[in-house]
# Entry
Amino acid sequence: MSGQAAKNQSAISVTNAKAQAHVALTERYRGPSTEPVGWNETLSVLLAHRSVRAFLPRKVEPWILEAAIAAAQSASSSLNLQLWSVIAVQDPERKARLCLGVADQRWIREAPLYLIWAADLSRHARIAERASVGDDLLDPDNLDPLATSLVDVSLAAQNAAVAFESLGLGFCYIGAVRLYQQELRDELALPSHVVPIFGMCVGYPDPDRPTGVKPRLPQAAVLHRERYDATAEAGYIDRYDAHMYAFQGEQKIQQVIWSEYSLRRLFNLHASEGREAYNAALRDLNLAR
# Structure
């Protein structure tokens, strides 16, 4: 390739990158935003994320699952403790039994692969048992092991999620699993000190049932430079309420005011009713209990 041809190709690449950045940022924020100087395919994959709840009846190839788990294990892990495990469920009958939550979530049945991501301290409990150490070193009221395992499993799952999307698959997190601790424990033969944190439906998206890119809060509402500053927050939230209301209309789903709806949802999380088993499981995640 001649020097001029290389320059032309580079200019085309820069133009394409800017176009991709513009589309991705506009979809995510529903408005003008500062376009970055550089862009790449990884950023496009990340910004194009959407929750997929409609899948084709096509199996997820074993190599894809294994590549995603390799990506998950490549995530950062505090002290390299690797305090997580994942259970891959593909048997249709077992998946049907795991349809726990609001309205018997049909996407769990439909997805060819259902992953249960769990905070897991049981591996180290077995290591401690073999070494005959532990009880006199543990504080049952220390929350650090809990926080460490929750962070570890979240980072690992998100790495897997990006890997799936980069290969053309879609996914949807299932948060309701945390409220069905005993049912999951029985079905998946989970030992003590293993707590299911969320599920993940995985498969090839059905193009006839697409979903849009959900808007997010303006960056200025979450990005604080040098010091925390919420002086302009109300305006950002009002703008986001309008974007979300329009998005819901486009998706033909119930239109609600995000700020009001999310506040009700957060307050519901504070209610202990229905969460007793989950709270107990989190307390018991500590090896001292």
Summary: The chain has three domains: 3-47, 62-209+273-285, 219-248. The first strand starts at residue 84 and ends at 89. Residues 25 and 88 are 33 Å apart (CA to CA).
